[in-house]
């Protein structure tokens, strides 16, 4: 039986349901998750933690799992680098000296992507696309990049008052919850909306923001 970890959206939904006093059985039915999984998160929330704390602990634990990255000794790196400077490709080095290279050809290219070898010494100079062609498909022409805020607000990375938001659509696309994260404190705010239209979300945001001084939240 396969198991998928809870997503950030699911964690925020569980926290929102918990704060609303929704029964565990209803949460299980809505998210299609086992009672044990939901109960584990709610027990964590009852201890005074947040969904963000749960996700942060999960990411920290995940870093300690899995296979470690392949490492080459310094002599092995120097051996490969000398041949790259002679205009050899990584697959030719591996094919010519299979016993001296302890990893596969694909791993060698991944090591190059990680910066272990100088890409300028590779035959393709580190460029996978011919003639400098950049991928343009799937990109929106008219949009505001979230990174522009750091240019408008010099203290964007250190000051309080900058929100990042998302909308979580509920079961059968009938309901929605707005989630906001304050960038500095990492506080998570969940807002109920009357629907999932832009006007419904705007109304919910304006109603919530009206409780605070006008310039408390800057962006």
TrEMBL record:
<dbReference type="GO" id="GO:0004803">
    <property type="term" value="F:transposase activity"/>
</dbReference>
<dbReference type="InterPro" id="IPR051917">
    <property type="entry name" value="Transposase-Integrase"/>
</dbReference>
<protein>
    <recommendedName>
        <fullName>IS30 family transposase</fullName>
    </recommendedName>
</protein>
<dbReference type="GO" id="GO:0032196">
    <property type="term" value="P:transposition"/>
</dbReference>
<dbReference type="GO" id="GO:0005829">
    <property type="term" value="C:cytosol"/>
</dbReference>
<dbReference type="InterPro" id="IPR053392">
    <property type="entry name" value="Transposase_IS30-like"/>
</dbReference>
